[in-house]
Design goal:
By secondary structure, the chain is mainly beta. It has helices at 16-28, 361-367, 422-425; strands at 11-12, 82-83, 99-106, 111-121, 125-139, 152-167, 170-184, 199-213, 219-234, 246-260, 264-284, 288-308, 312-324, 330-343, 346-357, 380-395, 398-420, 431-457, 461-469, 472-473, 476-477, 487-495, 501-511, 513-518, 524-529, 532-542, 547-554, 562-564, 567-568, 573-581.
Length: 582
C-alpha cells in the first residue's frame, strides 16, 4: 500500500531520491504559478500496492475525494530513521532563498546530508540541482532470531536535476536523478554464507519528461502527458558469481478531461508500462552464465465521469487493463468515489477501486533494500477494494474519521523466509535465510477498520491519535505492510512553544507482526515478529533566516524488534545537525 501520511511524518527512511525530491518541493513552494492540471489519477491506491518509503509530498491521490488516508500506515523503515529536512514544519520563510545545505550525524555513525540550489529562478523558467546522502556504519543491530550480529552499514546517495518552463499554452518539465546505494546484509547468520563478503550495490537512473496543458477549472479541455524511463539493477547475485537482476521500465501516461459546465466533467486516463528484466543465471564453471530476458507490458484505460456541487461529489469509471506476457490478457475493475455532506461537519464518503499496476524492483527496494537480488516481481490485480466511512468536524479544533474497508487481490506479493538448501550454501535443509527477503505470490482478501482523532490548539500545538485493525491469516488478510501488523497505533504531538522552535513527539505501536514460511509438508506457517514499540522526540530551531539546528532522539524506550526477520532495528539513538538557507 502506498503511504501518504505516515503518522510519524517527522521522520524519513533513507530512500534518498524521495527525500531529495521533497527538498526541492520545499525550496520552491513559495513560487506562485498558474494552477496545474490535476486530472483524476488512475488506480491511485489499491491493496496490491507495496508500501513505499515516506514521500512528504506525494501526488498519488491527485483528483481523489479527500479523506484521511493514513489508515494503511507504512511499515517501520528498514533503515535508521533520520530527521527530514525542515521536517518539523518550521515557519521558516523560503521566499528569499535559492539554496539549502543540511548535515547531521548521530549514534551508530548515522549521517544525513542534503544540498540544493536553484540555478535559474525566473518567472517562467526554473532549473534546480540537488543531492542527498544517508548512511549508517557501525550499528550492531542484533536480532533475537539470530545468534550472530555484524555491523549494519549502508551508504545511499542521489543527485538530481529538475527543469521546468511555462509557456502560454502549457508547461514543460524534465526531472532526472541518479541513485547509488551500497549496503551489507547485516542480519546474516555467518555459517550460512559461502563467503565473508555480503555487500551489495544498487544503481538506479530515472528521467521523466512531461507536458501539462493550460488548466481550465470549469469549462474546456485539460490534458497532460508524461514519459518516464527508469533503470534499476543489483550489482551481484550474492550466492552465485553473477550480476543480480536488473530492470528497465518505460511508462507513458496521458490524462485528459473535458468540462462543459462548472459541475460535470468527463475524462480519460491512458497509461502503458513496458518492463524488461535481465536475469543472470550461473550454470557452472564450464558452462558460464546464461542471461535470461523477460519482457512484459500493461496497457491501461480508464474512462470516467465526475460531478461536484457544494454538498456532493462523485466519480464513476472503469479500469480496463490489457497485458502481454503477464497473466490474463484482459482485466476489468471498477473506479468510483462518492462524497456527501450530511450535515455541517458530518461527511460520508465511499470509494471502490481496482485494476492492475506494475510492481517493480525499484518500488520494492524503496520499501525494503534487503529484497532478494534474484527477485523478478509479479504484477498484482485487484478486482475490488472498497472503503467507506465518516468525517466529523472540525468543531472547536477537533476532527475525527471513522472508516472500514474490504479488498481482494490476486497475485499479491508477500515477504517470505527463503529456505537455504545444501546446493547453495552447504547447510541443512529447513534453515532459513535471515538476511534476504524473498517474496511469494498469494491471492489475498481481508478487511480493515479504524479511526483517527485530531486536535489543533491555535497555532501552538497539533495532536492526533490513529488506530487501525486488520486481522491476518497465514496466507490471507488486508495488506498493510511487509510486517503484516494486525493492530497499528499512531500518536503524534507537535508543539510550537516559542517563535522558530518546533518540538515533536511521535509514538507508534505495531502488534501481531509476522512473516510466513513453508513447513515440512509444504503448508504455509507464520513466524512471529516482535511488536514495534517506538517512541521519538525531536526539535528544530531557526536561529535566524540563514542558520538552523535540529536534533532527534529515536527509540527512546530502547525496545528491540526486527524490521524484517533476522534484521534488528537500531537501539536508542541520537542525531543532531545544522541547516543553512541561502
Amino acid at each position: 500500500m502506498l503511504m501518504k501520511r505516515y503518522c510519524i511524518s517527522l521522520l524519513i527512511a533513507a530512500v534518498a531520491y524521495s527525500t531529495a525530491f521533497a527538498q526541492e518541493q520545499e525550496l520552491n513552494k513559495e513560487i506562485t504559478v498558474d494552477r496545474d492540471f490535476v486530472p483524476v489519477e488512475q488506480k491511485a491506491s489499491k491493496a496490491n500496492h507495496l508500501p513505499e518509503a515516506y514521500r512528504p509530498q506525494s501526488d498519488a491521490n491527485v483528483g481523489k475525494i479527500g479523506y484521511s488516508d493514513w489508515a494503511v500506515p507504512a511499515e517501520v523503515p528498514t533503515s535508521a530513521v533520520t530527521l527530514s529536512p525542515y521536517g518539523f514544519g518550521t515557519t521558516n520563510n523560503f521566499s528569499a532563498n535559492r539554496g539549502y545545505f543540511e548535515f547531521g550525524i548521530g549514534t551508530c555513525l548515522n549521517m544525513m546530508g542534503s544540498a540544493g540550489y536553484r540555478i535559474a529562478d525566473l518567472e517562467r523558467t526554473k532549473l534546480s540541482i540537488w543531492l542527498q546522502h544517508n548512511s549508517t556504519w557501525v550499528g550492531e543491530n542484533k536480532s533475537s532470531n539470530s545468534l550472530y550480529a555484524i555491523d549494519q552499514h549502508w551508504n545511499d546517495n542521489v543527485i538530481g536535476i529538475d527543469f521546468s518552463h511555462r509557456f502560454d499554452k502549457g508547461a514543460l518539465s524534465v526531472n532526472a536523478f541518479y541513485h547509488y546505494d551500497n549496503f551489507n546484509y547485516f542480519g546474516r547468520v555467518i555459517d550460512e554464507w559461502p563467503t565473508a563478503d555480503s555487500t551489495q550495490s544498487v544503481n538506479e537512473f530515472r528521467i521523466d519528461v512531461g507536458w501539462t496543458g493550460k488548466y481550465h477549472e470549469d469549462e474546456g479541455l485539460n490534458y497532460s502527458f508524461h514519459a518516464m524511463y527508469n533503470y534499476f539493477g543489483f550489482s551481484e547475485d550474492i550466492f552465485d558469481p553473477t550480476q543480480g537482476n536488473s530492470e528497465n521500465h518505460l511508462k507513458l501516461t496521458l490524462k485528459g478531461d473535458y468540462g462543459n459546465n462548472e459541475h460535470s466533467r468527463v475524462g480519460l486516463n491512458v497509461d502503458f508500462d513496458f518492463i524488461n528484466y535481465n536475469r543472470h543465471h550461473y550454470l557452472g564453471p564450464e558452462m558460464g552464465v546464461d542471461v535470461g530476458h523477460e519482457n512484459l507490458g500493461i496497457f491501461g484505460v480508464m474512462p470516467y465521469y465526475s460531478y461536484r456541487s457544494d454538498r456532493m461529489s462523485f466519480l464513476a469509471g472503469v479500469n480496463l487493463d490489457v497485458s502481454f506476457n503477464d497473466g490474463a490478457t484482459l482485466r476489468l475493475a471498477p473506479q468510483a468515489e462518492f462524497r456527501f455532506d450530511l450535515l455541517r461537519g458530518l461527511q460520508f464518503y465511499a470509494e471502490v477501486e481496482g485494476g492492475k499496476e506494475a510492481n517493480t524492483l525499484s518500488r520494492m527496494f524503496s520499501t525494503n533494500r534487503y529484497i532478494s537480488p534474484r527477485l523478478t516481481p509479479v504484477n498484482s490485480y485487484t478486482p475490488i477494494d472498497v472503503t467507506g466511512g465518516f468525517k466529523i468536524g472540525p468543531f472547536a479544533g477537533f476532527n475525527a474519521t471513522l472508516f472500514g474497508g474490504w479488498a481482494k487481490v490476486k497475485n499479491a506479493m508477500m515477504p517470505t523466509l527463503s529456505e537455504i538448501t545444501p546446493d547453495n550454501v552447504g547447510t541443512s535443509v529447513n534453515t532459513y535465510n535471515r538476511s534476504i527477503s524473498d517474496y511469494a505470490v498469494f491471492d489475498m482478501k481481508g478487511w480493515r477498520a479504524g479511526g483517527e482523532l485530531a486536535y489543533s490548539f491555535r497555532s501552538l500545538a497539533d495532536a492526533s491519535v490513529a488506530l487501525t485493525y486488520s486481522p491476518q491469516k497465514e496466507d490471507d488478510g488486508y495488506i498493510m505492510g511487509d510486517d503484516r501488523a494486525e493492530l497499528v497505533l499512531d500518536v503524534k504531538l507537535m508543539m510550537h512553544p516559542i517563535k522558530d522552535l518546533t518540538v515533536g513527539i511521535g509514538y507508534q505501536y505495531r502488534s501481531d507482526r509476522s512473516v510466513i514460511f513453508r513447513g515440512s509438508s509444504g503448508q504455509w506457517l507464520e513466524q512471529d515478529l516482535q511488536d514495534v514499540n517506538y517512541l521519538m522526540l525531536g526539535a528544530n530551531y531557526r536561529l535566524n533566516e540563514i542558520v538552523g539546528f535540529f536534533m532527534e532522539f529515536d527509540n527512546i524506550l530502547n525496545k528491540r524488534w526486527d524490521t524484517h526477520y533476522g534484521m534488528g532495528a537500531q537501539p536508542i539513538g541520537f542525531l543532531g545537525g545544522v541547516s543553512l538557507l541561502f
